[in-house]
Amino acid sequence: LLGADDKAAIAAGVEAMQYLVSNPDVPHGDVRLVLLPDEETGIRGAKVLDVAALNADYGICLDCCGIGEYVTENWYAGSARITVKGVTAHPMSARGKLIN
């Protein structure tokens, strides 16, 4: 579940979905990416989302915190540490460095 104001999380979610589609050998269950405005509990976007209709066993609400952290829920929050390995570069100066 991603709010439209959180562009970095939206990009990460879309990239994760693209990765799963492009790599069918990676084991995973059914995955749904939900994007809506005002995703915080009690606000308009969250109120109109029918969570039961998603029929999901788990949900992750990616939201901002510090670098390397994310919020997994609004109320009964858990946490995880994620390490991403890669190359930091801007496409204008990364010829030959970035690989999709």
From TrEMBL:
PROSITE patterns: ARGE_DAPE_CPG2_2
Organism of provenance: Salmonella enterica I
InterPro entries named in the record: ArgE/DapE_CS, Peptidase_M20
Pfam families, per database record: Peptidase_M20
Keyword entries, A-Z: Hydrolase, Metal-binding, Metalloprotease, Protease
Cofactor entry: Zn(2+)
GO molecular function, one term: metallopeptidase activity
SUPFAM superfamilies reported in the protein's UniProt record: Zn-dependent exopeptidases
The protein's name: Peptidase T
Signal peptide as annotated in the record: none
